[in-house]
Structure formats: C-alpha cells, structure tokens
C-alpha cells in the first residue's frame, strides 16, 4: 500500500506544480486553490508512505515522479522546449527511479 500511496503522491506533485504555473504567481484563485489542495494531499500521501518506506527511497521516488511528470506536462500541455538532451535527462531520472525501487526491500 505504501508504494501505491507514493505513486499517487508523485502524481499529485505533478498536479500542484502544473497548477502553480497556471496560478500566475498565485494571482488566479482557482489554480491557486488546486495548488494548495494537491500539495496538501501529496504531502499527506508521502507522509503515509514514509511510515514503511525508507526516507531516501520515498523522497527520491516522489521527487522523481514529480520531476519527470512536470517535464512531460510542460512539453505536452504548456508548449515547453523539446530536445533530445532534455529527454535523455528525463530518461536518466526514470532509470534512477527504477534502480531505487529495485534496491528497496519494502
């Protein structure tokens, strides 16, 4: 259950980071509220996951899902720059996440 919670915590990190971008510096109310709600839910799920997963593993997976997810949303939904070097960097993050998961005993 900790891994499932951690996965959803990472997805919510993508939601709050994308909503924060759309909030235009917290000047738009709806994206600002989505940011706050998703952030609280993400932290709560991360906290729950850390009850049984090691700190380093949980935090690395959470930030990795958030980073790669935000990168993907930025390219697909926000028209941010696509380059092979940026994709290679994202793939290296994913490889690190896989290694972290494989090395975890939980």
UniProtKB/TrEMBL annotation:
It is a multi-pass membrane protein. GO terms for cellular component: plasma membrane. It comes from the Bacteria. The keyword Electron transport does not apply. The chain crosses the membrane at residues 33-50, 57-78, 84-102. Signal peptide: none annotated. GO terms for molecular function: transmembrane transporter activity. Keywords: Cell membrane, Membrane, Transmembrane, Transmembrane helix, Transport. The keyword Transmembrane applies. It is found in: Cell membrane. One of its GO terms (biological process) is xenobiotic detoxification by transmembrane export across the plasma membrane. Its main location: membrane. InterPro entries: EmrE-like, Small_drug/metabolite_transptr, Small_multidrug_res. Belongs to the drug/metabolite transporter (DMT) superfamily. Small multidrug resistance (SMR) (TC 2.A.7.1) family. Gdx/SugE subfamily. PANTHER family: GUANIDINIUM EXPORTER, SMR FAMILY PROTON-DEPENDENT DRUG EFFLUX TRANSPORTER SUGE. This is Guanidinium exporter. It comes from Faunimonas pinastri.
């Amino acid at each position: 259950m900790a891994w499932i919670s951690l996965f959803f915590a990472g997805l919510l990190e993508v939601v709050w980071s994308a909503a924060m971008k759309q909030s235009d510096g917290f000047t738009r109310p709806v994206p600002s509220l989505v940011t706050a709600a998703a952030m609280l839910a993400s932290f709560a799920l991360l906290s729950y996951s850390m009850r049984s997963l090691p700190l380093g593993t949980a935090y690395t997976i959470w930030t990795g899902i958030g980073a790669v997810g935000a990168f993907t949303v930025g390219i697909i939904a926000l028209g941010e720059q696509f380059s092979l070097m940026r994709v290679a960097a994202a793939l290296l993050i994913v490889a690190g996440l896989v290694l972290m998961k494989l090395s975890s005993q939980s």
